[in-house]
Amino acid sequence: MQMFYKILSDNERGLLFVDNNLTKILGPGKHWLVGWGKRINVEVYDITRVVFEHEKLAFFLKNNSQLFEPFVDVIKLTDDQVGIVYLDGNFHDIINPGTLYVTWKGSQDIKVKVLSLSEGYQVPDQYVPIIGSVRRSGNLRKHADAILFTDVPEGHIGLLYVDGKFEKTLANGWYGFWKYNHLIAIKLIDLRVQNIDVSGQEILTKDRVSVRINLSANYKVVDPELATAALKDFNGFMYLELQLLLREAVGTKLLDELLEDKSVINDVVYQGAIEKLGSYGIELISVGVKDIILPGDMKLILNQVVQAQKEAEANLIKRKEETQAMRSMHNTAKVMENNPMIIRLKELEALERITTKIDTLTVYGGLDGVLNNLIQINQTPQN
């Protein structure tokens, strides 16, 4: 005969097995156990862990439900149900569909909110902040793949796809979606004005000169559903279209035309792209050539041309100034020829300039001799 006793504290419950068969559930206290030629075993559980888990739990509940009824609460979810568990009024856990969820009575206040997945795959708004914050803290690792959370920021829109099909658009906000029984995907689209650069394009002009051009364009998505449905990568599509139009615009122009007015490229590319991009839900706002870069030898040739042009312009200006000066001197001489008073004034001006440059001036023959002999105009030499 086997006889012993088992003491269970207030937070413990025991499963009594006789010859590996569950016969009783033991509550707190001291229990005398007597086995008449039988093997007795007690499995002890701490009810403060709330959830009762056992590899044969489903079997026990099916065949010994009367034993467990005073000690546990049982929730059995179908394949289209999910449970939200609250522990003492606070969110605690998520119960997956088709789960048998058993909790100990008398441990804590446990409540389970059962949601039907057949009514929708979106997590109700009141649960999103709670579940999302707990999930971010890492306390729901086992449910990491069960819920898809997404934040649609300002200036963006979300496109919801369910099982590969577009379902609806999502405005700004925080969303959660159950991934049970469905393939959920969300694509965020930026609705703000964006920039795309087409850089470093080596292109031949009409006169066979190789140039490298950098182009920049501004655009925005005005029909996100159309753009994503028609184009796998609308950024890549835009880049290719602008690249082709840029080559077309440059290839029909001479180098001098491009250097003289870059806007001809802008107009051709803009007019060629705006209608096509618009048919895919993309609005082209502006296009502009940032740089036209010439190869090294072409730069040298152009610099020489510009230098020659500038030198020619400088010489022309110089000749014009000399001609103007000679014409002015000729006119002055003609005026002075028949006007002694003007000649006298010029003599005084000359004398004034001379006296400003010397410290001492010695005059012989009187001041009149200086003034009379300083400047002699239109006098023929005597033989």
Automatic annotation (TrEMBL):
Parts forming coiled coils: none
Domain Band span(s) in chain numbering: 147-306
SUPFAM superfamilies hit by this protein: Band 7/SPFH domain
Entry-linked InterPro entries: Band-7_stomatin-like, Band_7, Band_7/SPFH_dom_sf, Stomatin_HflK_fam
CDD domains linked: SPFH_eoslipins_u2
Membrane topology of this protein: Single-pass membrane protein
Top-level taxon of the source organism: Bacteria
Gene3D superfamilies the record matches: 6.10.250.2090, Band 7 domain
Compartment(s): Membrane
Chief location bin: membrane
UniProt-listed PANTHER family: BAND 7 PROTEIN-RELATED, BLL5629 PROTEIN
Family to which the UniProt record says this protein belongs: Belongs to the band 7/mec-2 family.
Name by which UniProt lists this protein: Slipin family protein
